Amino acid sequence: MRHRVSIKALGRPSDERKALMKSLVRELFLHGTIVTTTQKAKAAAPFAERLITHAIAKDVSARRYVNTFLNDEKLTNKVVDEIAPKYSNRKGGYTRIIKMQKRHGDDAELAIFQLVKEE
Question: Is the pLDDT reported for residue 116 higher than 90?
Fold first, then answer.
């Protein structure tokens, strides 16, 4: 039975799924925008939103929280010092998913997953 099952498994075991989410969020923070499948983008969006929300606090515990997910000190500094302050007056909705055409090889729905421009 599927009662109260709320996680999107994406056809992967939990360790692969966690690695995929970390990889997608890392690339999003590095480049600002990535192209991936719609389902992967929808699954990764809450992770990116949560990290930015924590990073807005700009304290030591926020840096540690972000660093435990990203495992990269330079990227953690970029998120806390450059990305998060742009969204300090915003209460969520830091990412957007724009649907694109389907991929020719396997007919998968593609999407542009990007950080929203600061106001």
Answer: yes
Place of tokens 């540690």: 64
What are the beta bridge partners of residue 36?
111
Radius of gyration in angstroms for the set of CA atoms belonging to the chain, rounded to a whole number? 15
C-alpha to C-alpha distance for 88 and 75, rounded to whole angstroms: 18
CATH 3.30.450.20 is held by the domain 36-115:
no
Q: Quote the distance between the C-alpha of residue 83 and its chain's center.
A: 13
Closest CA to 48 of 103, 92, 2, 9: 92
Domain ranges for the chain:
36-115
Segment 43-73, tens digit of pLDDT: 999 999 999 999 999 999 999 999 999 999 9
Q: Is the pLDDT of residue 118 over 80?
A: no
- Classified as helix, coil or strand, 19 is helix
